[in-house]
């Protein structure tokens, strides 16, 4: 028991500060910001979500300030988010603070409301150097009367809400700890001695799982650390098992943050827990809750101010993992299964319709087929051009994959069929072919369950095209064979035209000559019958390309110019690109300047479009044309760039389209060994993929190199190439 001060001696300064934690970790930048703000404005607010360490930082800063503010160090919990009690009103708060300063009761106003009390408080602080921590404020109105006025005293406020009403008070917003800081805090708070034999070091995977389950929140980490510290017999694995069992102390904390919201906001917050992806925008939030976009935007701002929602980037929102778990659990407990099912259905509808709108902005054959899945949302993102659509797909990619999985789990078969279909243009630009094959495999299963001939026909056709782009030629042919009778059954000219075009690509790459030409011509007629002139242009451009490969340069150039004459708002749409490439190569001998102009423009458009496969194609064809102009060094550089792109895309099978042309350039540029290597690579790859024509060209190319370098074997390769070409002739 400390001795009592002598009668009449002044009492020592009041210090109500809680104990400063001995294991305060991280927050160097935030602490510096707090101390700097105190110097300049004397009052600041620390805001952040539940458990992020606001109080800990405020108390730690107050202890550091104590020596400079010796007259009093006060702490008052305003109970803005305390389970089971109302927030502390300004009247009792002011009386408690004045009492802490030992202000005689006769000096404290008893009537007149809040303002006389607040004036008395400001007057008492004016001649003192005091630091005041106002913890756990509910809002600006609660804390405004408690702020110091003139004089040197300072106040540190903490709140889960951004105190927007205190314009003159600078904020310091706290986020979760970094992984390194989290690991350090867990070790220090648990009393872990460190070293290779410590509990955390012996089980690093479980230790990492503790950090994940705690969401890098300081309070959660301290609670987990306390369990370890007081249970020396526990392993870290046992702690993980206990933590994963269900609701935690944080559910209570988050529930108090949610309680301040009105009924509509609480429902909105709960439903956000159903979103299957990571970050989200206001459009999907509006669709989820079935409310206007303006209302969703306002509610998101309110939840942002309450630190129940985070904003990692402009226009993007997210929930901390623990908050997301709480919202989802609350939705399960408080909303009916029917309402939750309907909300998830609205999310699935939104993403299919938004993807369709994005695909229409990126697709060459617009307008896209109408969506049949679900109900269109009231408001969709506005895609001003294909760049905006591509940016949306890139941003939403992980969400789209999560939504696809959610649709599979929910048995939403129409959504499962249509979502990948509306992502084809995006996949062509960004994601290669492997993943799209997996998606279309699952779409086919869904279409088979539906039994709808149109969905089933398109699922087979789409899977075939994915197989074709992956170099799986036999499987592509089988899928097209399965689609053909279904397309005939439904009598849809557009579907038949698309399938015909795809069969033409496949037949050409397999080495057929006359049949793909007929298929491209038939596809053009079918597109015309379907009222799709852009499709007709697409077919004409590919007919021109096929004619070029067969050596009919004049006819190829004529058809290419015909395709270019069809107007289109997008200069990089595929028929234009195909026609420019074809024309550039076709006239390289006669009109080298015009040819180079067409090819350079095609390359620039492909790059601007962000389509890496098309960029590689343009580079390779530019190499072929430059070779025909005798510009060998430039040609080689162009080929090399094309192959570097394919290596970047991990698309080995695509090289079959380019190997023989690159090899021929090497031969004419005086690089016979490199030419042989490339032709032999084509000879090895072509049979695996079913590219018989490329196989024949490889044999012919090897024979040409051997003729010039005199090693034996030229005759055998030439005979093998001729035999394959003979097989490929019609009627063979």
Task: Give the tags.
732 residues, mainly alpha, Rossmann fold, Serine Threonine Protein Phosphatase 5, Tetratricopeptide repeat, six-stranded parallel sheet, two-stranded antiparallel sheet, 34 helices, 8 strands, Tetratricopeptide repeat protein, P-loop_NTPase, TPR_rpt
Named CATH topology of the domain at 266-322 and 333-497:
Serine Threonine Protein Phosphatase 5, Tetratricopeptide repeat
- Global mean pLDDT: 86
How many helical elements? Answer: 34
As a percent range, the share of helical residues equals 55-70%
CATH architecture of the domain at 266-322 and 333-497: Alpha Horseshoe
Low-confidence stretches: none
Q: How large is the radius of gyration?
A: 35 Å
Largest sheet: 6 strands, parallel
> Structural class, judged by helices and strands?
mainly alpha
CATH class division of the domain at 266-322 and 333-497? Mainly Alpha
Beta-strand percentage range: 5-15%
Q: What's the count of strands?
A: 8
**Shape summary:** elongated
Spatial sequence of strands, sheet with the most strands:
1-3-4-5-2-6
Organism: Nonomuraea turkmeniaca
Protein name: Tetratricopeptide repeat protein
InterPro entries: P-loop_NTPase, TPR-like_helical_dom_sf, TPR_rpt, WH-like_DNA-bd_sf
């Amino acid at each position: 028991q400390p001795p009592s001060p002598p009668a009449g001696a002044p009492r020592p300064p009041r210090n109500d500060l809680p104990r400063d934690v001995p294991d305060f970790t991280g927050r160097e930048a935030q602490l510096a910001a707090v101390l700097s703000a105190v110097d300049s404005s004397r009052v600041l607010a620390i805001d952040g979500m539940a458990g992020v360490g606001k109080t800990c930082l405020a108390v730690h800063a107050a202890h550091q300030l104590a020596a400079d503010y010796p007259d009093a160090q006060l702490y008052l919990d305003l109970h803005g988010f305390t389970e089971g009690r109302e927030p502390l009103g300004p009247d009792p708060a002011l009386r408690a603070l004045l009492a802490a300063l030992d202000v005689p009761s006769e000096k404290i106003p008893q009537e007149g409301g809040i303002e006389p009390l607040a004036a008395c408080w400001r007057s008492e602080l004016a001649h003192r150097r005091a630091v005041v921590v106002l913890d756990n404020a509910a809002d600006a109105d609660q804390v405004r009367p408690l702020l110091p006025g003139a004089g040197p005293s300072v106040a540190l406020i903490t709140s889960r809400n951004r105190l927007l009403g205190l314009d003159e008070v600078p904020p310091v917003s706290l986020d979760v700890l970094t992984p390194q800081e989290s690991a350090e805090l867990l070790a220090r708070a648990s009393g872990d001695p460190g070293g290779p034999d410590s509990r955390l070091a012996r089980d690093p995977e479980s230790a990492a799982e503790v950090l994940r389950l705690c969401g890098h929140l300081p309070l959660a980490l301290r609670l987990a650390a306390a369990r370890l510290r007081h249970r020396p017999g526990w392993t870290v694995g046992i702690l993980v098992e206990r933590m994963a069992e269900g609701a935690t102390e944080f559910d209570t904390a988050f529930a108090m943050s949610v309680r301040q919201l009105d009924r509509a906001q609480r429902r909105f917050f709960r439903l956000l827990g159903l979103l299957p992806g990571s970050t989200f925008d206001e459009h999907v939030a509006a669709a989820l809750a079935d409310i206007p976009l303006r209302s969703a935007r306002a509610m998101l701002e309110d939840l942002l101010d309450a630190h129940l929602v985070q904003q990692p980037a402009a226009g993007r929102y997210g929930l901390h993992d623990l908050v997301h778990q709480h919202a989802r659990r609350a939705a399960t407990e408080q909303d009916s299964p029917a309402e939750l099912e309907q909300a998830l259905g609205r999310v699935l509808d939104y993403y299919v319709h938004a993807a369709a709108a994005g695909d229409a902005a990126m697709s060459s054959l617009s307008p896209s087929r109408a969506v049949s899945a679900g109900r269109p949302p009231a408001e969709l993102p506005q895609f001003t051009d294909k760049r905006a659509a591509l940016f949306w797909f890139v941003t939403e990619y992980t969400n789209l994959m999560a939504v696809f999985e959610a649709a599979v789990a929910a048995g939403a078969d129409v959504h499962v069929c249509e979502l990948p279909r509306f992502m084809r243009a995006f996949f062509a630009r960004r994601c290669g072919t492997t993943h799209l094959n997996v998606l279309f495999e699952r779409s086919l299963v869904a279409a088979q369950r539906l039994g709808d001939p149109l969905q089933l026909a398109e699922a087979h056709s789409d899977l075939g095209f994915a197989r074709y782009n992956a170099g799986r030629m036999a499987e592509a042919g089988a899928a097209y064979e399965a689609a053909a009778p279904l397309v005939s059954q439904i009598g849809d000219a557009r579907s038949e035209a698309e399938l015909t075009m795809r069969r033409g690509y496949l037949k050409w790459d397999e080495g057929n000559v006359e049949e793909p030409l007929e298929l491209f011509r038939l596809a053009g007629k079918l597109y015309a019958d379907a009222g799709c002139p852009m499709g007709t242009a697409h077919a004409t451009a590919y007919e021109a390309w096929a004619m070029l490969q067969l050596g009919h340069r004049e006819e190829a150039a004529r058809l290419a110019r015909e395709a270019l004459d069809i107007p289109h708002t997008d200069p990089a749409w595929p028929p234009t690109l195909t026609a420019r490439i074809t024309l550039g190569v076709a006239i390289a001998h006669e009109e080298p300047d015009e040819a180079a102009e067409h090819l350079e423009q095609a390359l620039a458009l492909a790059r601007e479009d962000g389509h890496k496969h098309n960029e590689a194609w343009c580079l390779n064809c530019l190499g072929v044309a430059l070779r025909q102009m005798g510009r060998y060094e430039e040609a080689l550089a162009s080929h090399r760039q094309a192959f570097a792109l394919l290596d970047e895309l991990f698309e080995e099978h695509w090289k079959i389209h380019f190997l023989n042309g690159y090899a021929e350039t090497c031969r004419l540029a005086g690089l016979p060994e490199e030419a042989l290597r490339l032709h032999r690579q084509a000879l090895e790859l072509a049979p695996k993929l079913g590219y018989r024509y490329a196989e024949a060209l490889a044999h012919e190319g090897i024979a040409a190199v051997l003729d010039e370098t005199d090693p034996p074997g030229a005759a055998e390769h030439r005979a093998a190439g001729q035999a394959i070409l003979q097989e490929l002739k019609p009627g063979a």
